[in-house]
Amino acid sequence: MPLALIVHGGAGAIAPHRFEAAKAGCAAAASTGWEILRRGGSALEAVIAAVVALEDDPTFNAGTGAVLTKDGHAELDAGIMDGATMGVGAVAGVQRIKNPILLARHVLATPQVLLLGEGAEELAAARGMPFVDPQHFVNAYRRAPSQPMPDEQAGSLRAEGKHGTVGAVALDAEGHIVAAASTGGVANKPRGRVGDTPIAGAGFYAEDGVGGVSCTGQGEAFIRMAVARRACEALERGAEAQAAADDVIARLGARIQGEGGLIIIDAAGRVGFARNTPAMSYAYCLGDMTAPIAGI
Ligand code: GLY
Fold first, then answer.
1. Residue 209 in 3-state DSSP?
2. Residue 61 CB–ligand 1 contact under 6 Å
3. Which of 72, 119, 146, 175 is the 20 to 30 A CA-CA neighbour of 85?
């Protein structure tokens, strides 16, 4: 089975002075995951490692670089789906976990699919995960070059600033497909707001023999259109990865004026990516490539 891996660093109006950092961050994350796949590692390991790299890079709106709520704290969401088992693990609204995707992976190993806030953090404690002070995210945000958006721009991906999410999809040598996403949500969001990122079928989806998808954009629109599952339905109808990505993002805009983008891998190992926003950072590796192709 051909190997494939693709990551994204969020869709929106990325400021030109942030292009290089966003591309470099995506390339580094893709390289990390690709090395794992090339050494015979699983899609699950590769996707987790790539998303951790993106969460640890303050360039992106996830993990350490997450945007803040209206009252000034981080509430982080993440989700992962294993296409081999169709298992899902997701967390929403966690405030003390540096890498929410690692906690989502623990949820994947439980009978539950989605844990919220304190309940999710109880699982983290039970699994011996380290906790960070919530101020970790506030400090990182204050140091970041982008500033909070005015209220009326929160959720708009045309306004310059940090938005979107990060994500990764991989296909391994066994033919297993895994997709994941992680985010701080939208800047200035009200407490308790949850977008598509921890919702399987909306923000991410994976199914062996079909494909895997990770989304970025206005979470409410991606939930309403079940975008990740919809893209896999396009694959099931015979579309290749790029056609499926183009079709679903076009429908998102045409049907409900939703904004964002997605990355996708089909069962044959073809990658696709599409956006209807001014920019979306991404990087991918295929076949015998030794270094990723990255772009905005
Ligand atoms: N797509 C990220 C969010 O809306 O929370």
1. coil
2. no
3. 119
